[in-house]
Structure formats: C-alpha cells, structure tokens
Amino acid sequence: MRLNNLGIVRTSIQRPDPDDVARLSQFGVATIHEAMGRVGLMRPYIRPAYNGAKLCGPAVTVLLQPGDNWMFHVAAEQIQEGDVIVAGCTTESEDGFFGELLATSLTARGCKGLVIDGGVRDVADLEKMDFPVFSRAINSKGTVKATLGSVNIPVVAANALVNPGDVVVADVDGVVVVPRELVGAVADASQKREDNEESKRQKFREGVLGLDLYGMREPLAAAGLEYVED
After folding, report:
1. Which backbone phi and psi does 96 adopt, to 5 degrees?
2. Strand 47-48 and strand 133-138: pairing?
3. What is its EC number (predicted)?
4. Which tens digit of pLDDT belongs to each residue from 69-93?
5. DSSP state of 9
6. 34: exposed, middle or buried (C-beta count within 10 Å: 0-12, 13-18, 19+)?
7. pLDDT over 90 (residue 133)
8. Would you say the pTM of this structure is higher than 0.90?
C-alpha cells in the first residue's frame, strides 16, 4: 500500500490538440488569465531567467526533493516534441536544480522550456541556447542525485496546481496554467478578448476617455465623487 506519490513515473499522459496549443501561444499571459476568469496564475515570484524568455506547451510535471535534481534525468525520457517541464518541490528550495547540461539534454528531446519553483544556474548559457526558463531563483548552489521524487503526477508550483498535459504559458508578465481540457475554449476566449481590446484601443487613440467608454460617470457620482472648481 502506497502512502504517497513518490517514486512514480507515469509514462502515458494525455496532451491537448497541438493546433489549440499553437493558437493559445499567440496570446500573452495577462490576456489568457483574464479570459479564463482571472484564474490560473502562478505566484509572481516566478520570473524569467533572462530577458525575452517565453514559452507555451503541454506540461510534463516533475516533483523534486530539496537539493536533488535526479528526477529531471528521469523526466527527460518522457518528453515529446513541444512539451515543457513544470517542476515543483516537496518543500521550499532555491538550490540550482537545473543548468546548461540538462537544457542540452532536454532540447535534444524536443523540450521547449522549463518552469520551476526552485533555482537554476548557467543563465548566460541558457540565454545563448534560447532555452526559456522561469524560476523562483538564480542560484549556483549544486544539487545531488539521491532521493526519489516523481514524474507526471499532479504538482503544485508557486501555488498553482499543474496536471500532466495542462498547457503552461509564460512570458514577462508571469506564468499561467490552462487545464488540458479547456485549451481550445480558452484560446477562443482569448481571441475574443483580444478583439474587444483592439476596439477599445482604437477609441483611446481617438481621445475617448475611459470614463465615457466604460460608463463610469454615473456610478462615480452615485459613490459621491464631486468635481470642485476653486
């Protein structure tokens, strides 16, 4: 009888339609988050390791032990073209779990990036490789390979639940998780929001005020806002 999910590798996960993933990749994190009803964000301490990093792809999930990166090597075997790795830890750790050698291995398997609630290193090399990484910390502190975690189980990273096959989108504004079964619908909703914002953008260019575009004057007056001429 198992008492936990440690020491498990799930070798078969469901991934969303690649066309839906490609459509979703056209939108920024803020747009997707708003289109889903303001849910799905990781905590804002997860930041790009270098300027310009961005990614979008189905998640292969990794549960790490603090100071131990063994499971990244296990996860590499489970990567399919277009996947990203999302790594959480059994407890908070900012050690340098990931660097250029692992990125080289994962790139050869078709991996498109990493989101980790932990530390990374070799950032200059990662930037040269154009391997996008979003992390809790940048830390040269090395790790060992001694303790089992798991691959392709549900993990919590920066307060967000990520299931294998969920799509993770990351850019300079943060990281958002889209449930696998909703990727097409969220892409549709994001396009609708983008179209609506373009209409508003054009009105702002023409000099229309948000006060009028959003019908704010009456509720502001009802709330007691007064205009006073001295």
Report:
1. -80, 80
2. antiparallel
3. 4.1.1.112, 4.1.3.17
4. 999 999 999 999 999 999 999 999 9
5. B
6. middle
7. yes
8. yes
